[in-house]
Amino acid sequence: MTMVDGIDARGMQHCETTTLAVLLRHQGLDLSEAMLFGLGAGLSFIYWDSKSMDFPFLGGRVKPFTLTTGLADRLGLELQVKETTSPRKAWEHVTAAVEAGRPVGLQLDSYHLDYFTSRVHFGGHIVALYGYDERHAHLVDTAQQGGAVTTSLDGLARARAERGPMTARHRSFTLTVPADAAPPRDRIVPAITACAGAFLDPPIANLGHRGIEKAGKLVPTWLRRSDDPEHDLPQAALLMEKAGTGGALFRNLYRDFLAECAEQIDSPHLRTGHALYAEAAGLWTHTAALITRAGQTGDAQYLVQAGTQLRELARMEREAMQALSRLEP
């Protein structure tokens, strides 16, 4: 068995921040999950639907791995990424890191991981690998999935080789914290204003505050959009609350990030943003409950109420991000 020493295998709420925490704690940089998410400018919104999809998807974060690259850029971390179409070379990339005493991040499709009880294809899942033997890999995943877990090497290989939406070519990565890395406190304002800028000025109407407003118009049609609303609507709500989001479609995490920042930076704009996101987080949870209720009862009135709340959330989050965009270095 080959294992990296000194691994803190705590699982967190979201897969990418969990992996980042494992890699950075091993380098001596211990940040909260909310701070990792916020410094990586992870908050976003997308209303995603297409003819190839059985049902629309509401997403509350930037696309997979963007949080990692954003965090590395902002803190001046050395991010080494390996990709290949060769399964053999891909495994060599992993074993070389572990044998050098370093945990390694992997992007893969969670469908093939043995410890997942709910098998759904998701090619943007990210885990930390810190050891292996002849048959199994030792990983750190979210607390919901068990934290320190094992999966077969065969299943891991299939997960890394899967192709489809959000997948990567056997992507693995390591992080190094240089001696002259920027103190996290110094990078708070640039992270917040970058996130606010992207949210306020999205390139298409499906993203940012415009995407939430669009969801407010379309969610009331979801009973007609679904062939199986009793399954599809509660499933959509479950993804908003439980699927690694930290609750409230990642708004709980961003609220907590802003609260941490407000302890370090005295700014009325920051306090305004935090107060609005604290209110928005509760409204997102209530919106998810309404969507669940609509699926359970078949009553479209619950979706009408959800649509009204989504339009209010679009306004609320737009005002929050406008306040946060005014932060000065």
Automatic annotation (TrEMBL):
<dbReference type="InterPro" id="IPR026935">
    <property type="entry name" value="BtrH_N"/>
</dbReference>
<dbReference type="InterPro" id="IPR032369">
    <property type="entry name" value="DUF4872"/>
</dbReference>
<dbReference type="Pfam" id="PF16169">
    <property type="entry name" value="DUF4872"/>
</dbReference>
<feature type="domain" description="Butirosin biosynthesis protein H N-terminal">
    <location>
        <begin position="14"/>
        <end position="142"/>
    </location>
</feature>
<protein>
    <submittedName>
        <fullName>BtrH N-terminal domain-containing protein</fullName>
    </submittedName>
</protein>
<dbReference type="Pfam" id="PF14399">
    <property type="entry name" value="BtrH_N"/>
</dbReference>
<feature type="domain" description="DUF4872">
    <location>
        <begin position="155"/>
        <end position="324"/>
    </location>
</feature>
